[in-house]
Write a structure and sequence with these properties.
Strand order of the largest sheet: 4-5-1-8-9
Order of helices and strands: HHEEEEEEEEEH
Number of helices: 3
Structural class: alpha+beta
Helix content: 40-55%
Mean pLDDT: 76
Low-confidence stretches: 162-172
Length: 216
């Protein structure tokens, strides 16, 4: 790039900078304050999203003896999975019908920390079984939940020995959830304040501009 081209670019940049400064001067101070609060709220929401990222996984392994049923799973009260499960007749020696059997395996993303998992199995014959279990999830790890469902029984159990790693991450997970909740609360307060400001100030500014406009 020759010297003349560089000089032209510098001149164009200087002109754009002067125009931007002129526009900035025309913007009221209150508008800059509102914009600043809005940017802070957006930053807090972004941090909240990062803290609540799903950086672990829950593997669901189901064994059941049901002909047909609806399986639902909630994590901390939020539905994370719902689907139909069916069983097939197992034949002894390949000829004699013995029992119904079915299985399911699903992997669900989840945020690290302590969570409550609720499983519900509603059979087509009207019977409903439900149970709840709590567990710790370490960052970048996977825990397996073994579910056994029968017509009159439902049992939940964690597979594997990951308690040591989970306990080590318990405190950091609690702090992360607390910080995430705090940031979300602050962001909500800022957004509420901005909405209140807009409702209170904008009509007055519109009326002032209308009154300042010269009549034809």
């Amino acid at each position: 790039m020759d010297q003349q081209r560089i000089t032209e670019l510098r001149v164009q940049a200087a002109v754009l900078w002067q125009k931007a400064r002129a526009l900035a001067v025309r913007v009221p101070t209150k508008a800059w304050i509102v914009l600043g609060f809005f940017l802070i709220a957006a930053l807090l929401m972004a941090v909240h999203t990062a803290l609540s990222a799903k950086d672990a996984s829950l593997r669901l392994k189901l064994q059941h003896s049901l002909h047909s049923a609806q399986l639902s799973l909630w994590i901390d009260g939020d539905r994370a999975y719902s689907g139909k499960i069916t069983g097939s007749v197992r034949k002894r020696f390949g000829l004699i019908p013995d029992s119904l059997q079915g299985s399911l395996s699903e992997t669900l993303p989840i945020a690290s920390g302590k969570h409550q998992v609720r499983v519900r199995v509603a059979s087509d014959d009207g019977s409903v079984q439900e149970d709840t279990i709590s567990g710790e999830f370490a960052r970048n790890s996977q825990r397996t939940l073994s579910v056994t469902a029968r017509r009159d029984d439902l049992s939940l159990n964690w597979q594997g020995a990951s308690s040591g790693l989970a306990e080590a991450s318990s405190e950091s997970g609690w702090l992360g959830r607390y910080a995430s909740t705090l940031l979300l609360t602050i962001a909500g307060s800022i957004i509420s304040a901005l909405a209140g400001y807009a409702i209170k100030e904008l009509p007055g500014q519109i009326r002032a501009r209308q009154s300042a406009t010269p009549k034809a």
